[in-house]
Amino acid sequence: MAHGQNGCPRCSDIGELACGKLDPSSPEAMELRRIFREKALSTVFQPIVACEDGEVIGWEALLRGPEGPLHRPLDLFHAAERHGCLVELDMLARRLALRRFADSPVGDTGQLFLNVMIDSVRAEESYETLTAGCVEALGVHVGRIVIEISELHPSPDTSAIVRAVTRFQRDGFRVALDDVGTGYNGLHLWAETRPDIIKVDRYFVDGIHACGKKRRFPQGTAARMPCRSGLSSCS
Predict the structure, then answer these.
(1) What is the enclosing helix (H) or strand (E) of 59?
(2) 100, 89 in Cβ contact below 8 A?
(3) Phi and psi for 117 in degrees, rounded to 5?
(4) Coil, strand or helix at 177
């Protein structure tokens, strides 16, 4: 793979990797090829606010495909998975999000929550793009990035993920686990790692003021799980 400065793959390199895997006889694969070649992905920055005072403390980068059948993120990721280019799509989305965050007014304040698929964490070519040098080459200080680990499917082997989380934190990133309480591996990973932030699934937050059972889930689970000092939670 060709690399730019600081050992980071360029968007064009990621696209070439993906396009080499796509079957030209499949209309869906051809749409994916167009998306990679034209970088036809949008990034939406959703504010994350503090419950106490409504202050914006960060922004979650959310992916959108082009208008059409692959506009919704899940549809886009599942299509990429079907055609063997899920990791490349995750890499491209992440790189575009970093660059756009650095160029956006929202990039002046708060942290960037950057979704990373578990499959990408395990893939060596993607793993190497998540270094302090790579993200800072795109204009964002590593200390402002929260790597949010997401999942499409259960992961029977979490050892590689545990090693990756340790390395991310050693390099200066913060790490969040997404959809804890309903995801396939969330509680398992929480038990095996020491995340900085826990994103509790929305089910446990909606109406929590009126439901004692919902309140007991985050309270009871947090009391039993290992964590780093200063652990935060959000939904």
Answers:
(1) strand 56-64
(2) no
(3) -70, 145
(4) strand
Helices (DSSP H) in the chain: which residue ranges? 11-19, 27-38, 73-82, 86-103, 118-122, 124-127, 132-137, 159-170, 186-192, 212-224
Give the tens place of pLDDT for each residue, 148-180: 887 655 666 678 778 888 888 999 999 988 755
CA distance 198 to 6: 31
Are 164 and 197 spatial neighbours (Cβ–Cβ below 8 Å)? no
**Radius of gyration of the chain, Cα coordinates, nearest whole angstrom:** 18
Spatial contact of 139 and 104, defined as CB atoms under 8 Å apart: no
169, 195 contact by CB (below 8 A): no
Q: Give, in order, the Cα–Cα distances in Å from 214 to each of 120, 218, 235.
A: 32, 8, 13
How much is the pTM? 0.80
Give the CA distances from residue 130 to residues 93, 126, 133, in Å, rounded to whole numbers and listed in that order.
13, 7, 8
**Which domains does the chain show, CATH number per domain?**
7-234 (3.20.20.450)
Of 202, 186, 195, the C-alpha closest to 230 is 195
User: Count of H helices and E strands in the chain?
Assistant: 10, 7
Q: What tokens were used for 65?
A: 């495909």
Distance, in Å, from the CA atom of 208 to the CA atom of 201, rounded to the nearest integer, reads 12
